[in-house]
Specification:
171 residues; alpha/beta; Rossmann fold; six-stranded mixed beta sheet; binds flavin mononucleotide
Amino acid sequence: MRALVVYESMFGNTEEIARAIGEGLGTDEILPVDHAPRDLAGYDLLVVGAPTHVHGLSRPSTRKAAADQGSGSTRTGEPGVREWLGGFTVLPPALDTAVFDTRIGKPRWLTGSAARSAQKILSGLGHAPAAPAESFLVEGDGTETKLVAGETERAREWAAGLRLRRRASRA
Ligand SMILES: Cc1cc2nc3c(=O)[nH]c(=O)nc-3n(C[C@H](O)[C@H](O)[C@H](O)COP(=O)(O)O)c2cc1C
């Protein structure tokens, strides 16, 4: 199975989860969204992740706000996942997809979820997810957040589950 992980990350939390997901999937194709391909032919599974900004996927204005709040440099640049996914009119029909985000560890109705927003874009392309959208939780405020203990391991296990699910669906 050929799997690609695409991530957006301002300060590293989502990147860390993306790397754990790559490990769980057994792939080293883990690409920042600003270097992600537009041609997904040949991939069996696409996993996309982003930080939650203002209850959903980031926008250029929230990314700029994040960069201004931090040291100015961010892990990924333009475009974000919203624009990258929004640039597709069709995805390869045999491609499985799954989405994740990082967000504050409070009830989802309070925090929103970038993964839910990404899922809506994929649904708009007629693409049913291989698994429900997943969130990995952080604690802290603003640019000073860090992953809650155990979330990296949970991401690895979630990805291993995706791999098994893909194998079972093709058996
Ligand atoms: C501009 C901005 C807006 C944010 N809005 C939300 C939000 O609405 N809900 C939430 O749960 N977290 C929010 N966060 C927190 C981030 O989702 C969280 O810190 C995330 O793990 C950052 O990922 P990164 O380190 O990969 O950039 C926001 C952070 C920033 C910088």
